[in-house]
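pls ignore typos typing on phone
alpha-L-sorbopyranose + seq
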Amino acid sequence: MPKKPLNIGMVGYGFMGRTHSNAFAQVPHFFDLEYRPVLKTICARSADKAQAFAEQWGYESSVTDWRKLVDDKSIDLIDIASPNDTHMEIAIAAAQAGKMVMCEKPLGRNAAESAKMTEAVERAGVANMVWYNYRRVPAVTLAKQLIDEGRLGKIFHYRAKFLQDWTISKDLPQGGQGLWRLDVGVAGSGVTGDLLAHCIDTAMWLNGGISSVTGMTETFIKERHHNITGKTEKVGIDDASLFLSRFDNGSLGSFEATRYARGHKALYTLEINGEHASIFWDLHDLHRLQYFDHRDEGRTRGWRSVHITDGDHPYMNKWWVPGLQIGYEHTFIHQAADFIEGLTSGKPASPTFRDALATDLVTDAVLKSAATGQWESARG
Ligand code: SOE
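k done
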């Protein structure tokens, strides 16, 4: 059967523009799908850079105004990989033009923006998804399967952290390419929206909804040079963010994210403790799932380190041979595959905009609680 083209207009050519473009370019080689992604047009503010990106990644053309993608009848899907302050306007215009919309996380700079975006895609009835890629690390997907099979029994604890160290220097400026994550006007928040959002998305997928939170944040460096204004300006983002939560299933959560954990580059770990079994996963060792089952025979009972590379592990039959690992970029390829599969099956793959809105309601509640010192509802 000839494949149907899925014409993609990509906004943004930075770190995420590359991960998404790579996903669409690679997915037809490894997954047998009804649609074949076509890298149609890349959009970026600088014409030279957009054209260079188009040539390097195989886009047919480049533009400097995202509205051209919205107006282009040949584009089926607009993928937003540009900074957070651009997400809402592009997503709403794309949905109103009847395009499918994919968006890099976090969906909005806050839940109010995410709610408008969710309303737009749902009103237009267009396929939509947010790139929370860590769900599709095969070890994390396996954790989901084990939890859904009831192997852990009743869940008591969910524990996650995401530690980095790249903003410790007070000489690091805020704003502009690569550094917009430090500019609150562009990013919306600091590590709460950038890193904790990943932890929350995975947590609610694995362990269900979060009802309430109590949090605290800190901005360790109060002023930084701003690359766009050229002035020293107040820093509005949170550099570190910690919170406790209550899940709907009665379990307790604890979460931490920081860019001030010297020595850690992207240490995302999660642990879940249930009545019968526990699971631990670490992004720095992403192909392993640590599993402890109390029901094992006592003398040999202990933590198992399962190498998630066999054909019966999630997604792994699409790749090499048992024992050979895959990496970070594959999580995006899996997400592109699931999105396209959802178009065929009519069963939309998650996280949809609505799922990502739920995450933004939690991050908003964490920031609110950090300001009020009170427990806050995570339901808006
Ligand atoms: C920040 O440094 C960052 O690149 C996040 O923006 C990504 O979402 C995360 O996956 C890795 O860290």
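Residues 164, 194, 266 surround alpha-L-sorbopyranose (CB under 6 Å). The chain has a mean pLDDT of 98. more later
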